[in-house]
Design a protein that fits this description.
Chains A, B: InterPro entries: ADH_Fe/GldA, ADH_Fe_C, ADH_Fe_CS, BDH-like. Two copies of one chain form a homodimer. The first copy, chain A, is an alpha/beta fold and about 400 residues long. Chain A folds into two domains: about 170 residues, Rossmann fold, CATH 3.40.50; about 210 residues, Up-down Bundle (Dehydroquinate synthase-like, alpha domain), CATH 1.20.1090. Chain A is about 50% helix and about 10% strand. Chain A contains 15 helices and eight strands. In chain A, the strands form two sheets. In chain A, strands 1-8-5-4-2-3 form a six-stranded parallel β-sheet, with helices on both faces. A two-stranded antiparallel sheet of chain A has the order 6-7. Chain A is globular. The two termini of chain A are about 40 Å apart. At the A-B interface, strand 1, helix 8 and helix 9 of A face strand 1, helix 8 and helix 9 of B. Strand 1 of chain A pairs antiparallel with strand 1 of chain B, so a sheet runs across the interface.
């Protein structure tokens, strides 16, 4: 078996007012010129952006701001960030926002230390060898990018959405203030719950062996989400729900819930979703929910026991001993849970009617034009991927 | 509530042959002169020490070796290490061994960057402001020092055993090779199981609030130990048991199982055990086992529900609804489990008969001669501490 690796150097601080630690953390990093990168107007309206800028400026550190990050962050804005960093000799990047903003920061961090075009790293034309120092004030708990090694960027031309994973982009610090997630719209909260769960689910369903300890941790995380996800939807200012979800979002994608397993994860659903949101700009969590149960029913026969175990541990389903039946009950239950959050469970739930040409295009793009297969639990080639898109239609 | 902090910068690699990554990791740290610090003859006999020295020397990095670390590592040897580091301009410290060796390395790391005597940091006369870079090849899974911020050193004169906790001493890397724990004697393995469990138990029983997510993680870790601890005892070369225990040892003391709780932990049992092993040189895990159930029965009335929950989640005990009864059942069950591992559950099980003078001395030392109380779940002053030592006698 390969050697398992766990590397999460990010200093996480969580609590009410955690964002006020920003100056302290920037000083530790010897930051002198900071790019503050953000997306939504939410942090302008609630005053967070202004307060953070003031705190930092008062400490003698210079700030530059660049807003406008959108969900499925665009390489065009990343290029603007790279230009700004190079022009102003900026030495630290601070994200205020969620996964999209952090991913955009990571891409700026790579691009600023590179002479070529940053998209090279996402189109696999080049591999990063360094990244600038990055920190974040997290105002949305979902992607887990604050502790992960991954970033996903969309190319404005052609709608290609591609990831780049390296340890260089691991954040120096992440300040988690659950209160700043109170104002997230219900739909976004539901998407977040799915996304957080999927980061662990992708690591749970693999071919080969898993570490028992990691299985226990993974299912404990998922149970926590099943409990607090619905509470956050009906009671958005429930601090307990928000803090549990927020910390789960970080842990779910920092590698912990896959440690010691024989594969890094399956990730077929993520990669199929990337094509979907690249083409239609749907929310990532919703896209995952629209695909997962179809994927699960397509692949479960590879190891029905694993799905049965999942249903038992995560949802407390009683095991009948008939693995096939138990596996299907687990899939039904998960689908039902996603639906109860108001999430789509088919692509048509978005109001999208996929044409045959689009199905073919999605499958072709997902394989990088025939250059890769997807998945680990079941290896998916172009035809199987197209099958799943078709069944999920 | 205070702001929760999680900081585990240590790069962990676990698997068969993980120790071979040592050169790669040392290069990443730009190490040029490495002090290899170790304890037992086990790594000499099995050839690990020689192999590691060869690997490192062949890579062009210079090595210096210093053996002789004993359980409850002594400040006298630490001072020798500091002298060697200063004399030879050593720039990296590599531990090969378990918690005692790593703790000794941490103390050398502090002392080498300090003009005064290293014991100042343990007697709270001074606070460290820096530590040298440290890595380890772990050959014993117990103390969790490989990811923790703590080190515990014993002063040869007077048998004082004292801790020092700072983030400066967090290791750069930890190489975990479960096969190297096969040869641990049964008694040491049992001590390790208790020690690992206690690092989470100390964080679980506190006054105030805990994060639900963290409760789920803590109990999942403890269930893993309850399953694999006995397997490692009866089948020492069971790889699955050894790898689960090894990773649990790191996670149990890196802060994860206490994250977001309103107190850093209780630690009364640890501090009472420190006095016991300082006086009698008993194994740390065994000392904890000899005290815990007495402590638990003494304090449980502060929050019987918490103990009932513990018994239900960790041992699957059915809840009767009578919290007092359920709490006692949980304590009985835990005591029984420790006993089943061959661990002492009273101080007399060591063959030690504590005199009244010794009880008074233990209680006095535990309070730092009246300068502190112990515990969080229940605050323990000198008289209560003496009560518990007396009841555990």
């Amino acid at each position: 078996m390969a050697i398992a690796s766990y590397y999460t150097p990010t200093h996480v601080l969580m609590g009410k007012g955690a964002y006020k630690e920003v100056v302290n953390e920037l000083k530790k990093q010897n930051a002198t010129k900071v790019l503050i990168h953000y997306g939504s107007d939410r942090i302008k309206k609630n005053g967070l952006l202004d307060e953070v800028v003031s705190l930092i400026e008062e400490s003698g550190i210079k700030t530059f701001t660049l807003g406008g990050v959108v969900p499925n962050p665009r390489v065009s804005l990343v290029r603007k960030g790279v230009e700004l960093v190079k022009k102003e000799n900026i030495d630290f990047i601070l994200a205020i926002g969620g996964g999209s903003v952090i991913d955009s920061c990571k891409a700026i961090g790579y691009g600023s230390l590179y002479d070529g075009d940053v998209w090279d790293f996402y189109s696999q034309k080049a591999t990063p060898t360094a990244c600038m120092s990055i920190g974040c004030i997290l105002t949305m708990a979902a992607a887990g990018s604050e502790m992960s090694d991954s970033s996903v960027i969309t190319n404005d031309e052609g709608g290609l959405k591609r990831g780049c994973n390296t340890d260089y982009c691991r954040l120096k610090f992440a300040l988690l203030d659950p209160e700043y997630t109170y104002s997230l719209p219900k739909y976004q909260t539901a998407c977040a719950v799915v996304d957080i769960m999927m980061h662990t689910i992708e690591r749970f369903f693999i071919k080969g062996t898993t570490l028992a300890f990691t299985d226990n941790m993974a299912t404990a995380l998922l149970r926590t989400m099943v409990k607090f996800g619905p509470i956050a939807l009906t009671d958005p200012t429930n601090y307990e729900a928000r803090e549990n979800i927020m910390w789960a979002s970080s842990v779910s994608h920092n590698g912990f819930t896959g440690f010691g397993n024989s594969w890094r994860g399956d990730w077929a659903c993520h990669q199929m979703e990337h094509e979907l949101s690249g083409m239609f700009d749907v929310a990532h969590g919703a896209g995952l929910s629209a695909i997962w149960s179809t994927w699960a029913r397509y692949v479960y026969k590879e190891n029905p026991k694993r799905f049965a175990f999942f249903g038992h541990e995560v949802f407390g389903l009683e095991l009948t001993g008939d693995d096939d039946k138990d596996a299907n009950a687990a899939i039904d239950k998960t689908e039902e849970f996603f639906k109860s959050l108001g999430m789509p469970i088919r692509i048509s739930d978005f109001g999208i009617t996929l044409t045959d040409d689009q199905l073919e295009e999605l499958a072709t793009k997902a394989t990088f034009y025939g250059k890769r297969t997807l998945g680990s639990f079941m290896t998916l080639d172009h035809d199987r991927i197209k099958d799943i898109y078709t069944l999920a239609r």
